[in-house]
Amino acid sequence: MPNHQPATPFDNIESSHEYVSLLAKAVEEALAEVNADIAGVSDFEAGRRKEALQLVHFHLSKLSGHMTASRRILNDLRSLRRLLLEERLMETALQRGA
Questions:
Q1: H/E element, 55
Q2: Which of 23, 55, 80, 97 is deepest in the core (most CB within 10 A)?
Q3: Is the pLDDT reported for residue 98 higher than 70?
Q4: In the chain, what is the greatest distance between 2 CA atoms, to the nearest angstrom?
Q5: Are 37 and 98 a contacting pair, CB within 8 Å?
Q6: How far is CA 78 from CA 21, 49, 81, in A?
Q7: Angstrom distance (rounded) from CA 22 to CA 29
Q8: Residue 44 contacts residue 28 (beta carbons within 8 Å)
């Protein structure tokens, strides 16, 4: 069986799941940085900068939720594919045995 090197991170479900997991980790790191930035904003500069940081936090939080949902969907797809492949292999084995 030839060793297939994926051309993109989305050539199969496993590599897509890994890519989304890495992206989710990057989003979580960015959220931590923004939280630190928000905590570090002084009362003197609390105007537009803090509002902008809070908006960034809001959007990163939404993105984090989407990443979590995407990982779960990809995990479900992996499980379903395994189930379907196993059923197909069992059908083939039964047909050969008959």
A1: helix 48-97
A2: 23
A3: no
A4: 82
A5: no
A6: 14, 43, 5
A7: 11
A8: no
**Going by C-beta distance under 8 Å and a sequence separation of 6 or more, which residues neighbour residue 78?**
13, 14, 17
Sole residue written with tokens 């003197």: 44
Q: What is the DSSP letter of 19?
A: H
What's the token pair of residue 36?
Answer: 């630190």
* Predicted model pTM: 0.74
Segment 28-73, tens digit of pLDDT: 999 999 999 999 887 777 788 889 999 999 999 999 999 999 999 9
Say how many C-beta atoms besides its own lie within 10 A of residue 63's C-beta: 16
* Tokens read off for 46: 């609390």
* One-letter amino acid of 29: E
